[in-house]
Specification:
The protein contains six helices and no strands. The chain has about 120 residues and is mainly alpha-helical. It is elongated.
Length: about 120
């Protein structure tokens, strides 16, 4: 969802001739200095739309940070998860055919969680 929101912001700004470097952080920095520039490039309504979308983005960042913190805490305090995080990927891929179904499913779930974080 965050990527979709960022792409939407980029598209709105691109339609108005504003192009920013690739990367989420670079766009964040550019949006922080946009208020001084906005009168020359954006109508008040478009500027307000960008501000609202940026606000949604900040809320998502907060939720993602909370989820990441929860995941890290769980990994630090759960012995099984701590052991899983120490297994190199190459070892896991080598042993995967011999692992019980529950272990491969758990690893798959962890990859999905980390991909969305």
């Amino acid at each position: 969802q965050r990527t979709t929101l960022i792409n939407q912001i980029r598209a709105i700004l691109l339609e108005r001739g504003l192009i920013f470097a690739a990367g989420r952080r670079k766009l964040e920095v550019a949006l922080d200095v946009l208020p001084g520039d906005q009168e020359a490039t954006l109508s008040p309504r478009m500027y307000q739309l960008i501000v609202e979308l940026r606000s949604e983005w900040k809320v998502m960042d907060t939720k993602i940070a909370a989820l990441n913190a929860e995941f890290v805490s769980l990994a630090r305090h759960n012995f099984a998860m701590r052991r899983l995080t120490t297994i190199p990927v190459s070892v896991y891929l080598t042993l995967r055919p011999w692992l019980p179904r529950s272990a491969t499913q758990a690893a798959s779930n962890m990859r999905e969680i980390s991909a969305h974080g």
